[in-house]
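In the previous lecture we treated proteins in isolation. Real proteins rarely work alone, and many bind small molecules. This record shows how such a complex is specified: first the sequence, then the SMILES for copper (II) ion.
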Amino acid sequence: MNPSRENTTIAILVIAGIVLSGLFGFYITTIAKAATTSGQSSQAAVVNLDIVPDYGGATYDGFVLPTNIENGVVPTPATNTTGPGPNDNNITVSAGTAIKFVVTSWDNAINQNLTAQASTPFTAYNDTASGQVASAYSQGQSFVAMGIGHTFSIPQMGVNIPIPPTTAVVFTLTFAKPGVYMYTCDSPCGPGMGLVGYMEGYIIVTS
Ligand SMILES: [Cu+2]
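The predicted 3D structure, ligand included, written as tokens:
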């Protein structure tokens, strides 16, 4: 092989390598995104749920899955109120698995000063000028006049977790058996309250 041909061969190999690594990188990114997306709606060990004020207008606050925010999916109020349907904020998880919930409220309104005892251990994370502050509450711990905008409540399980304004609240729940659990907001937050697809939805627990 003469020197110029060898150089040409090397150049072609380098270019091919760059193109292939780019394609491979894209492939990995796509796989990672697909895994995250499918993990959100089924068999997730982590459930991210946002509370968005005035989602869809008309002061309808809502629990919204992050993928629906990304895709601009705005629900119309569901007509079925007694069971799970295509309500846009239903969550599917596995029974017998510890599920970490991360509920992030983007609502800055305080609707209620809540005095109660923690039904479930939870940690509230707030961003402040001096960094992120975590407040952890153990089961049964009292809180007094906590300013909240919403709650994350599962009446069937006695779960009632306060969600303060512009705060991320993290807690872990394990659903012992397959079934359907309604989740809802107990705080008087407006017309989205008690509306399936907005401040109410269903957790579908599979075996
Ligand atoms: Cu609410």
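Summary for your notes: Residues 61, 150, 185, 187, 189, 193, 199 surround copper (II) ion (CB under 6 Å). Residues 3-41 form the longest helix (39 residues).
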